[in-house]
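Exercise 3.2. Students should predict the tertiary structure of the chain below and write it as structure tokens, then compare their answer with the key that follows.

Predict this chain's 3D structure.
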Amino acid sequence: MSTLIEWTDITWNAITGCEPISEGCKHCYAAKMANRLRGRYGYPETNPFTPGVVHADKWDLPLRKRKPLKIFVNSMGDVFHDAVPTEAINNLFLTMAISGALAQGHAFQLLTKRPDRMAQEIERIGTDPVKILTDKAGWETPYSDELLCHAANSINGELGEGHNVGWPLRNLWLGVTAENQARADGRIPVLLEIPAAVRFVSIEPMLEPIDIARWLKGTTTHHMRASVEGMIRNRAFDCFNDDDGQPMSPTDAENELYRLHGSGVKYIPVGPKCEGFTSEDGCPGHRNPALDWVIVGSETGPGKRIMDNAWARKLQHQCTVAEIPFFFKKDSRGKTKINGREWLQFPEVA
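Answer key:
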């Protein structure tokens, strides 16, 4: 359905409902909207914001959209509330896999305040995504065998150029809400451990100053000084550039070591994430994941809590320094400019 949310094109609410979980929930717009829809369009009469309500007639909505769109998944609740059935999450991800297989060009934006369950579900699906998402045994799916086969081929990477293939889904953007520093500290590190095409944070409503600089650029973990022989033996491993996965030549290894050593890095013992490098050989280092996009906005509506524009200006500056796209919705007065201009940046996705 159409939406006034500035950073997306449409919303897709095949699952609705939620419960307050943190400070940002105090004036939840979705709860108020659900109350207005009470008894209509599948919203319960007694508690219209009941978590985990499934709207089966909405499953295929993205597949009916021909133009590539940014689609906000479940703007009327939280996909990863405990009450949401596992089968519903399967259908959600299956729909996104089919959309990618059909090369529709949609980007699915999934935002949660419950990243722990998000991590658990994506890990569960990732153990065998083809079986979990396309096996009809034990749960209902609205899709034909032909579409299920197409989704399986997509996940297995057997489709041609132009299709979103593989796991994790390349058309899926995962995000968390962080309304204050405590929620940022608790949720963002969990998000960054989850594989996704784009990882983002929505700081809305912004209730206090927040520092996110540590998550805006992947820090590099450096390990024991690697030898040329070790780098050749254990294949190429370049923490700054894309790696073609081929063994390094002696010249390449020497150049890489020279560049790393010249940057003044210090090394620590090799750990379990060193991709096959041994204690004897060492590892030149690897990058830790980082945020790809930051959204900031004030609270709106009756009783809104006021955002100090200086808080938003600080985040905009941090994003600019880190070269991370920044999207500013509006301040407490309804103004859309910060630091003298509008910031409507989106992440670039291959």
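Discussion points: Residues 10-177 form one domain. The radius of gyration is 22 Å.
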